[in-house]
Design goal:
heterodimer, A: five-stranded antiparallel sheet, 9 helices, globular, B: six-stranded mixed sheet, five-stranded antiparallel sheet
C-alpha cells in the first residue's frame, strides 16, 4: 500500500540557519505520529513544508504517492493548525469552526461533531474573544478537524493549556483521530505527551532526525545520548570499556568501579554509561553482589507518583526515582543497584558531553 | 528574614471578588508556592503582599507589624515577574548593580555587592553579556539576581518560570530554591504548574475562586487533600468514583471500601483513587476486583492503563519495570489507598471544575 505521506530528503535554509538538513520519513494512513524536539529543532518548519506554507530548498513531499511539492496549500488535502490560535475574533465559535468546513465544502455536520468532541458545542454562539485560552485552543482544534482533510498537522496543540487540561485532552485527541481515521502529525516538545499518544515518534534535533520508532522502542533503546536525555531524567557516567564477559560489557566507571551492562558498542574504549533515574534501585541493604554501590542521600523531593532522591557516590551525584512517598531520610547511607539490562552504553561523544546532551 | 501574615484579606474588582477573606501565615525562611487556576486570585494575593494593590479589607503584617500603609519600595521586597524586565541596552553586570547604584549612589558599593550576588548566582561569567545574548532561563536568573541585590529579605515571584523553555525551567527551579535557601530569604512563588510547586515548595497554598482551599506541605496535599478540588489539582490525574455508604462501608461499582472517617448509612459519597494506587495483578489477591484492560498508554517510566471494572472505567499507572499488561487482558485490581468525600451539594462536576 502507498504511504499516506512521504517526506523525502527535505532541506530548508533560512539564510545561514539550516532549519532542515535532509529529512526523510513516511507515514501510513491513519497513523498518529508525534514530532518531538527542543526549541529550534525545525519542527514547525517541517510542518509548514508539508502544509505547503514553506517551500523546501530541496526534496519532495508526496501525498498518496503523488508529488505535491509544487501544489498550493489548499490543494493538498492537509489541515494545518498553527501554534497559537489564528481564530477570527469577531466571529462566533460556530462560524469559526464551520468556516473551515465551508471553504472545503464538506458537510456542516462535521463542524457540529468537532465542536461536540472538544466539548464546546454549548458555547457555539459565543464570540471567541469571550473564551479562555484553553477554550480558544479547542476551537482552533475543532476547526482543523472540521475541515475534512485526511491529514492533520498540529503544531503544539496543547502547549497553551494548563497541564491538567492538556493531559486529559491529549488522550481524547488521539482517540478522536483514530475514530475518524485521520493521519496526524503532532509537533510537541513534551516527551511524555509524545510517548503517551503517538504510534510512532520522530525525534528531531537541529534539522536532523535522531531516531524514528514506537514510543517503547525509542524510550528503551535510544539511538544516542541526546535521545536518551531528551526523553527522561538520566544519569550519565563516564567510563572505560574493559572488555566483554558472558555477553556483558564491562565498564570501569570513574568513582564507582566495574559496571556490567547488556548494552554493547561497536568500537572504542572511551564510553558513557546512561541510566534512567527510575531504573536505578535504591535500598538500605545491598541488593546484589555486583553493580551495587554504596552512597549517601543528599536531598530528596516528593513529586507525587515518585520521590526523587539525590544520592552521592564518591563525589558523584545521581538522581534516583523511587515509586511512592518518601521513605528514606537525607543523610542516610543507601545502596544503589544498577540492573545490567537497563543501562545504555555509548561511545564518548566527540563534541563533548555537554554538547551531545544539549537540549537548546 | 520576614514572616508574612495575611489576615482576613478581601479584594474586589467591581463585581468580581478576587480574594475572599484570605488568612495565611508564611514563616521566616519558608519557600511557599501559591497555586490555582487562572483567575483564582494568586497574583492579587502576591500584589497585596507586595503593596502594589491595596486590600479592601484585612491586614498584611511583616514580622508582626501591619504594613498596609507602607509603600512598596519600603517593604524590603524583591520582585520577579513572568515577563523578564531587564534593561536591553545594559550588560548583565549593569542590570544587576543598577538598583544598588540608584539607592545608595555609591559605585564602589554597587560594584562590591554586585560581584557578590553575581558570584552567588554563578553568573559572573555572563557579566559582560547583553540580555538578548542569553536564553530566557538565563535572563530570568539575572532578573532574580537583580531583585535580591539591594538586600531584599522577601522574594515575591509571579510565574517566574512561565516564559522559560519547559526543560530549562525544570533545572532552574531547583537552582532557584537553593539560592533562596542560601541567601536566607523568605520566598512566595506564584505558579499554575502543580508539579513545579510540588518539587520545590516547603508549603503550598491552593487558591480557588479567591478562597484558600488548603495550605500544607506537598505530601499533605497529596495524601490528605481536604477537598475534591485539591485532590484533582494536586498530583496529576485522579479517579473519582461515586458510591453509597452501607453498614459503615462504601459501596461502589469498582469495589467496597472502608472509609477512615465515619459516614451515615445511605449517604452519597465520592471515592478518590490515585492511578498510582490502583494495583494490577494477573493472579487473584485478597480484596481485589476483577477487571479488564481496555486501553494502554506508555508514559516512559510508567504505563497508564484504562481498566473496566463492573462497567466503570478507572485509570491505573504501573511502573514500566513491574510488568506490562495487554489490552483485552483480564486482570485483578486492588486499591492501595483511597480517600472518601461526602458527595458535594453542588455536584461532582462543579466541585472539581478547573476554572
Amino acid at each position: 500500500m502507498v504511504d499516506k505521506l512521504t517526506v523525502r530528503n527535505v532541506v530548508k535554509n533560512y539564510g545561514s540557519v539550516r532549519a532542515l538538513r535532509g529529512v526523510t520519513f513516511s507515514v501510513k494512513k491513519g497513523e498518529y505520529v508525534c514530532i518531538l524536539g527542543p526549541t529550534g529543532a525545525g519542527k514547525t518548519t517541517l510542518l509548514k513544508t508539508i502544509a505547503g506554507l514553506v517551500k523546501p530548498d530541496k526534496g519532495q513531499i508526496l501525498i498518496d504517492g503523488n508529488d505535491v511539492t509544487e501544489l498550493p496549500p489548499e490543494e493538498r488535502g492537509v489541515s494545518y493548525m498553527p501554534q497559537g490560535y489564528a481564530l477570527f475574533p469577531h466571529m462566533t465559535v460556530w462560524e469559526n469552526v464551520a468556516y473551515g468546513a465551508f471553504v472545503k465544502s464538506v458537510e456542516l455536520k462535521r463542524a457540529e461533531e468537532a465542536l461536540k468532541i472538544v466539548g464546546l458545542y454549548h458555547r457555539r454562539w459565543s464570540k471567541t474573544y469571550e473564551l479562555s485560552g484553553g477554550q480558544q485552543q479547542r476551537v482552533a482544534l475543532a476547526r482543523a478537524l472540521a475541515a475534512g482533510s485526511e491529514i492533520i498537522l498540529l503544531d503544539e496543540p496543547l502547549s497553551a493549556l494548563d497541564v491538567l487540561i492538556a493531559t486529559e485532552l491529549r488522550y481524547e485527541l488521539k482517540d478522536l483521530a483514530r475514530e475518524l481515521g485521520f493521519t496526524v502529525l503532532h509537533v510537541t516538545h513534551n516527551s511524555e505527551e509524545a510517548l503517551s499518544i503517538a504510534d510512532r515518534v520522530i525525534i528531531l534535533r537541529k534539522g536532523l532526525i535522531q531516531q524514528i520508532g514506537e514510543p517503547w522502542e525509542i524510550y528503551t533503546k535510544p539511538a544516542n545520548l541526546f535521545v536518551a536525555n531528551f526523553l527522561g531524567e538520566v544519569n550519565v557516567l563516564e567510563g572505560t570499556l574493559k572488555g566483554l564477559r558472558e555477553g556483558a560489557s564491562i565498564v570501569d566507571v570513574k568513582g564507582f568501579g566495574e559496571i556490567y551492562l547488556r548494552s554493547r558498542i561497536k568500537e572504542g574504549w572511551h564510553v558513557v554509561v546512561v541510566y534512567r533515574s527510575e531504573d536505578i534501585i535504591l535500598s538500605r541493604e545491598p541488593q546484589s553482589s555486583y553493580n551495587c554501590f554504596k552512597g549517601k542521600v543528599s536531598w530528596r523531593e516528593f513529586l507525587g507518583t515518585v520521590t526523587r532522591y539525590g544520592v552521592e557516590v564518591n563525589g558523584i551525584e545521581l538522581k534516583v526515582d523511587d515509586y511512592g512517598a518518601p521513605r528514606i531520610e537525607p543523610g542516610s547511607k543507601v545502596y544503589l543497584y544498577f540492573p545490567s539490562e537497563q543501562g545504555f552504553l555509548y561511545s564518548y561523544p566527540r563534541e563533548g558531553l555537554v554538547k551531545a546532551l544539549g537540549v537548546e | 528574614m520576614i514572616r508574612v501574615e495575611v489576615r482576613n484579606v478581601s479584594k474586589r474588582y467591581g463585581k468580581i471578588i478576587a480574594l475572599d477573606r484570605v488568612s495565611v501565615t508564611i514563616e521566616k525562611g519558608e519557600y511557599v508556592c501559591v497555586i490555582g487556576p487562572s483567575g483564582s486570585g494568586k497574583s492579587t494575593l502576591l500584589k497585596i503582599i507586595a503593596g502594589i494593590v491595596k486590600p479592601d479589607e484585612g491586614e498584611v503584617l511583616f514580622n508582626g507589624r501591619v504594613v498596609n500603609e507602607v509603600p512598596l519600595e519600603e517593604r524590603g521586597i524583591g520582585m520577579v515577574m513572568q515577563d523578564i524586565l531587564l534593561f536591553p541596552h545594559m550588560t548583565v553586570h549593569d542590570n544587576v548593580i543598577y538598583s544598588v547604584l540608584v539607592k545608595h549612589g555609591s559605585y564602589s558599593l554597587a560594584e562590591k555587592v554586585g560581584k557578590e550576588v553575581l558570584t552567588d548566582f554563578d553568573i559572573l561569567l555572563w557579566s559582560d553579556k547583553y540580555p538578548d545574548e542569553l536564553s530566557r532561563g538565563m535572563q530570568q536568573k539575572v532578573a532574580i539576581a537583580r531583585a535580591v541585590v539591594s538586600g531584599a529579605k522577601l522574594l515575591l515571584m509571579d510565574e517566574p518560570l512561565g516564559s522559560v523553555d519547559p526543560r530549562a525551567a525544570k533545572q532552574l527551579r531547583y537552582e532557584l530554591r537553593e539560592l533562596v535557601k542560601d541567601l536566607g530569604l523568605t520566598a512566595i512563588h506564584v505558579t499554575h504548574n502543580q508539579e513545579e510547586a510540588m518539587s520545590i515548595a516547603d508549603k503550598i497554598i491552593v487558591l480557588r475562586r479567591g478562597r484558600i482551599e488548603q495550605v500544607g506541605t506537598p505530601l499533605e496535599l497529596y495524601l490528605q487533600p481536604k477537598t475534591l478540588f485539591v485532590a484533582r489539582f494536586i498530583g496529576g490525574e485522579v479517579n473519582f468514583i461515586k458510591g453509597y455508604v452501607k453498614n459503615g462501608r462504601v459501596e461502589t461499582d469498582v469495589g467496597v471500601f472502608n472509609p477512615v472517617r465515619r459516614f451515615k448509612d445511605g449517604e452519597k459519597v465520592v471515592v478518590v483513587l490515585r492511578p498510582e494506587h490502583v494495583k494490577i495483578s494477573r493472579s487473584r489477591v485478597e480484596g481485589a476486583s476483577k477487571g479488564k484492560i481496555v486501553k494502554r498508554n506508555f508514559l516512559g517510566p510508567l504505563f497508564r492503563y484504562e481498566v473496566e471494572v463492573n462497567g466503570a472505567k478507572i485509570i491505573s499507572k504501573v511502573p514500566r519495570n513491574l510488568g506490562v499488561f495487554r489490552v483485552g487482558e483480564e486482570i485483578y485490581v486492588k486499591f492501595e489507598r483511597v480517600g472518601v468525600f461526602k458527595y458535594p451539594r453542588v455536584g461532582l462536576k462543579e466541585a472539581i471544575v478547573y476554572e
